[in-house]
Design brief:
The protein is about 0% helix and about 55% strand. With about 190 residues, the protein is mainly β.
Length: about 190
């Protein structure tokens, strides 16, 4: 359990604030006129998924959270509950709700290996691979017209998510997606 000074609270760090784990999304250290510098941060509560803003002053300290990580496999989703099991032991199953899975759920398909973050021996967050390959389930037909800038169309993936892709992508093709930005990368 290490303590961070106000200017060490940086993006991607996980801190404890009011007894809850928060991931730092952004931080901005600045000073107003003759005052002491402050660090203005945007935080996401890893238990509830809620967002918060907090200002750390020069005298403030933040406790860095002790987060454990393990690999797990996604099994299925039903009624907003996401079922996983430990990669090494299929009998160790656990569930997460929509708030903890977040946008990652749009790209999860059965048997996908993910990283699960644990806090106080409870799963709190799922990290999926940055690049994933998914099959295009539905694609509208190509339309003629102004394609000088490269035409795009919206397709539906096997997980039900929609994605903007170039015109040449057809139903049945496999596409690679950047899961952090939700953008098309290439056809596989």
């Amino acid at each position: 359990m290490s303590m961070l000074s106000y200017n060490e609270v940086l993006p991607k760090r996980i801190i404890i604030l009011d007894g809850e784990p928060y991931e730092v999304l952004s931080s901005w250290v600045f000073r107003k006129q003759q005052r002491k510098p402050v660090n203005q941060t945007k935080l996401r509560n890893l238990k509830t998924g809620g967002m918060a803003e907090h200002t750390f002053h020069v005298s403030d300290k933040a406790e860095e959270a002790e987060i454990d990580a393990s690999t797990a496999k996604f099994i299925y989703e039903k009624n907003g509950e996401w079922f996983f099991h430990d990669s090494k032991d299929k009998s160790k199953r656990f569930t997460l709700d929509n708030d903890h899975v977040g946008d990652a759920g749009k790209y999860l398909k059965s048997d996908t290996e993910v990283e699960v973050r644990w806090f106080d021996e409870k799963p709190i967050q799922v990290k999926i691979p940055v690049k994933m390959d998914l099959t295009v389930k539905e694609a509208p037909p190509n339309t003629r017209g102004n394609t000088a800038q490269g035409g795009n169309k919206v397709v539906t993936l096997e997980t039900g998510a929609t994605l903007t892709v170039p015109m040449f992508v057809e139903a049945g093709d496999t596409v690679r997606i950047n899961t952090e930005t939700g953008e098309y990368v290439e056809r596989v």
